[in-house]
Design goal:
Elements lengths: L6 E4 L20 H17 L3 E4 L16 E5 L2 H4 L4 H6 L1 E5 L10 H10 L5 E3 L11 E4 L2 E6 L5 H13 L3 E6 L1 H22 L4 H20 L8 E3 L4 E4 L1 H4 L8 E4 L11 E3 L2 E5 L3 H9 L3 E5 L2 H4 L10 E2 L1
Parallel strand pairs: 1-2, 4-5, 7-8, 10-11, 13-14
Antiparallel strand pairs: 1-15, 3-4, 6-7, 9-10, 12-13
C-alpha cells in the first residue's frame, strides 16, 4: 500500500501534441500554453516534495506526455510502505509496463522501459493479446480497480490482476465500455453538426443543431475514456466519483465524494502527500474538498483536457 510519494516521471508535450488522439471535441490545444501548464504541474509536484525525473519531449508520439498510460507502479505491503527505510521500500516496489490499447501509443513503452529499468530492480510487462492503459488503473489503498475500456481489454486486466496478487493486492474489474462508445459517437455527431452550421443552415436548423450540441455536451461530460476519468482515490476509503460511476456496486464499500454535474472533469484529481491537486475552474468541487479538510492546489488544465488528458495522466508517481 502506498506511503509517501518521493518521485515522479514526467514528459512535456511535444510540438506534435495537437496531432494526438482525442474525443473531446474542444478544439486544438495551444502548444505554448500547454507547455506553461505542464511546467506549473511539475512545480506543484515539486512543492509536494517529489523529485521529478524528466523525460524529453517525443515528437514521434504526440500523446507521450500522458506518461501514466505506459506503466503502473505497485508497492508490496503496508508494512513496507510505512517503513522509513528508502532502500527497503524501493526493494518492495514493482514497475509494470503496460501495453496501450491504441496502436499508435504502443511504442511509447519502449522509452519508458529503458528509464524504469534503471530505477527498478525488475520489470513486469503486459503481453499480447492483453492491452492495458495506466489511466484505467486506480489504486485505492490495498485494492486496485481496473477499468475494462476501449483501451484496456479483459486479457490485460487479468494479467495485471495476477501480478498485483503476488504483491498482496486485491483487485476488481469495472467495465466502462458503454461510456467510451458514447464519447466516440458524440465526437462524430459534433463534427456533423459543425459541418451543417458551416454550410449556412437556416435559422431554425441552426437552432436545432445548437440544442443538439448542448445535449451532446452533457453526454460527453458523463462519458469515460479511462476509468480514472470518473474516479480518484484520496485516503481513508474515500473516492472522488462522478454520477456516471457512483451507482456501481464495485464502489459500495467506499465513502463517495460526488462531483456535481457540470464539473465532471474535476473527478480526475490526485492526492500527493497530503494535498489534492485539482483542475482549476470547478469551484463547487474545490469548496467541497476544503470543507472536508483537504488542502487543495488548483492547476490550469485546459490544453490537456482538449486531448482527453487529466492531472493523473501527466505523471507516474511513487
Amino acid at each position: 500500500m502506498r506511503g509517501v510519494f518521493s518521485k515522479a516521471i514526467v514528459r512535456p508535450p511535444s510540438r506534435t501534441f495537437a496531432e494526438g488522439l482525442t474525443t473531446a471535441g474542444l478544439g486544438a490545444p495551444d502548444y505554448h500554453r500547454a507547455l506553461e501548464q505542464h511546467a506549473a504541474y511539475g512545480a506543484a509536484l515539486e512543492e509536494c516534495g517529489l523529485e521529478l525525473i524528466r523525460l524529453e519531449a517525443d515528437e514521434r508520439h504526440p500523446d507521450s506526455c500522458f506518461v501514466e498510460d505506459a506503466a503502473v507502479i505497485a508497492e508490496s505491503s503496508a508494512d513496507y510502505a510505512d517503513s522509513k527505510s528508502d532502500d527497503l521500500r524501493a526493494a518492495r516496489r514493482q514497475a509494470i509496463l503496460t501495453r496501450p490499447g491504441a496502436p499508435s501509443r504502443q511504442e511509447e513503452v519502449v522509452s519508458m522501459r529503458s528509464k524504469l529499468a534503471r530505477l527498478f530492480p525488475s520489470l513486469c510487462e503486459i503481453r499480447s493479446p492483453g492491452t492495458l492503459d495506466g489511466g484505467d488503473v486506480c489504486e485505492a489503498g490495498p485494492h486496485f480497480f481496473i477499468g475494462i475500456s476501449e483501451r484496456t481489454n479483459e486479457d490485460g486486466a487479468r494479467e495485471l490482476a495476477e501480478i498485483l496478487t503476488t504483491y498482496g493486492y486485491t483487485s476488481s474489474f469495472v467495465d466502462i465500455r458503454t461510456h467510451a462508445r458514447d464519447a466516440r459517437a458524440t465526437h462524430a455527431q459534433d463534427a456533423r453538426a459543425t459541418h451543417a452550421q458551416d454550410a449556412r443552415a437556416t435559422h431554425a436548423q441552426a437552432a436545432r443543431a445548437t440544442q443538439a450540441q448542448d445535449a451532446r455536451a452533457t453526454a460527453r461530460a458523463t462519458s469515460l475514456l479511462h476509468l480514472k476519468s470518473g474516479v480518484a482515490y484520496l485516503r481513508d476509503k474515500t473516492l472522488v466519483i462522478t454520477d456516471t460511476l457512483a451507482y456501481r456496486e464495485e464502489f459500495h464499500e467506499y465513502d463517495l465524494l460526488r462531483v456535481e454535474p457540470g464539473e465532471e472533469y474535476a473527478a480526475n484529481c490526485i492526492e500527493v502527500n497530503g494535498r489534492v491537486l485539482i483542475a482549476a475552474g470547478h469551484p463547487r468541487f474545490a469548496k467541497k474538498l476544503c470543507e472536508l479538510g483537504y488542502e487543495t492546489m488548483e492547476l490550469e488544465m485546459s490544453e490537456f483536457q482538449k486531448m482527453d488528458g487529466g492531472l493523473s495522466c501527466l505523471s507516474i508517481r511513487w
